[in-house]
Write the structure tokens for this entry.
Amino acid sequence: MNLAEKYGPWALISGASEGTGSAFARRLAGEGINLILIARREGPLKELADELTATHDVECVTATIDLAKPDAIDAIKAVSEGREVGLFIANAGGDPNGTGFFQTDIQNWVDLVTRNVMTVLLCCHHFGGAMRERRRGGIILVGSGACYGGASGLGVYSGTKAFDLCLGEGLWAELRRYDVDVLNLILGRTDTPEFRRHLASRGAPVPAGLASPEDVARVGLERLPHGPVHNWGLEDDEQGRMPQSAATRRDRILAMEAAMQDLKMPK
Ligand SMILES: NC(=O)c1ccc[n+]([C@@H]2O[C@H](COP(=O)([O-])OP(=O)(O)OC[C@H]3O[C@@H](n4cnc5c(N)ncnc54)[C@H](OP(=O)(O)O)[C@@H]3O)[C@@H](O)[C@H]2O)c1
């Protein structure tokens, strides 16, 4: 598959400065896709952009945007104005709090919901709508196994990831007729700087068996045409700790679509 033809000429990656975000950026630059790189810290973004433009024949634009701010979408639209974004990767999405529900200020949970739900929603509408019109493109929502249910300390994070999962499944169903691919890339433990900082802040050892960001980016792009879900480390039809396999989730959406024919739901 020629990624640039299918998902170029520009990809926009949120949370691009490190970990899985920068791994996606490196892989896409290697495929000749221009990049819009978004995060809060300017230094790492600029370093990455310099590295990629020096080693590949691509353009890189960086933007320091706090995705947890309600008006983040305005800055995202401004930086992408005039650039055809054929691939949107919503990567930023970890829980920076790592506490029980009542152990952090409510504003921190509101920020998490704004970044993971509202900003993702607004970006999907903006970029997905243009892809739909062009009948070409791709969307990757980087998710977490936490999307399949809440647990102590995970209620808000799980809720946001469950929202993204359902949104992504719905978009997959609507956009597949327009040759726009949508994938919920559901990760398990992954060796990102953010995860390591989280472990270090608790004095916890680095566990064995972490996924590498490079593998995540490679597999994510490979599985993008086979949405709506890829559960990390599991085959399409495998059942893990998740209640449903990726294949079951796809079949359920298609069966619902068939069963709702008489309701003349929008397509
Ligand atoms: N690591 C894991 O074990 C694991 C497990 C399951 C799922 N995931 C998922 O994988 C994705 C990446 O996770 P991660 O561990 O790398 O942590 P992350 O905090 O989601 O991502 C780090 C990247 O996002 C940026 N970022 C974070 N908050 C931001 C904000 N408010 N506005 C703009 N940029 C922001 C960071 O740069 P700045 O700090 O410069 O803004 C950095 O580039 C997430 O969606 C997460 O839910 C990770």
Notes: DSSP finds nine helices and seven strands in the chain. The pocket of NAP is lined by residues 15-21, 39-41, 65-68, 91-94, 115, 142, 144, 187, 189-190, 192, 194-195 (CB under 6 Å). The first helix runs from residue 3 to 7. The beta strands are 10-14, 34-39, 60-64, 85-90, 137-144, 180-187, 229-231.
